[in-house]
From TrEMBL:
This is Nucleotide-binding protein A8990_101283. Nucleotide-binding protein. The keyword Nucleotide-binding applies. It comes from the Bacteria. The keyword Nucleotide-binding applies. One of its GO terms (cellular component) is cytosol. InterPro entries: UPF0234-like_C, UPF0234_N, YajQ-like_sf, YajQ/Smlt4090-like. Belongs to the YajQ family.
Amino acid sequence: MAENSFDIVSKVDMQELNNAITQAEREIETRFDFKNSKSSITLEKDDIVVVSDDEYKLKSVIDILQSKMIKRGVPIKNMEFGKLEGASAGTVRQKIKLKQGIEQDISKKINTLIRDSKLKVKSQIQGDSIRVTGKSLDDLQAVMAMLRGADLQIDLQFTNYR
């Protein structure tokens, strides 16, 4: 019988993220509570930089951004918030780092979860993704369901399911 497999990855769709940022900026421009404010959202490689007048408005901008990301299917679990810092002209800035790929310690935790599940599957770390193989499609789907229910710090996607 043939081996079936799938890959576990954690990626952020940068095009959808860019669209979410554009939508959030458009909403900020039209909202009354942001009239005459210096609020902006910029994307720099794997970082999002949010700038606003004060801490309260910055939190509101981040809330707007997160709601747009959720609507577009961009995972917000992969956001790692930096510390609040002062910027020019009395504004505040916060960098948000985007996690791409599965880090080594989380990969080991996922491997341990799969091994402890007692399902007849094998998992193998391949760089920043994990390949899970097994004879039964039901076992592979059980692994997917178990990982969806697990409390991990990142959002997981399942690709190359065959």
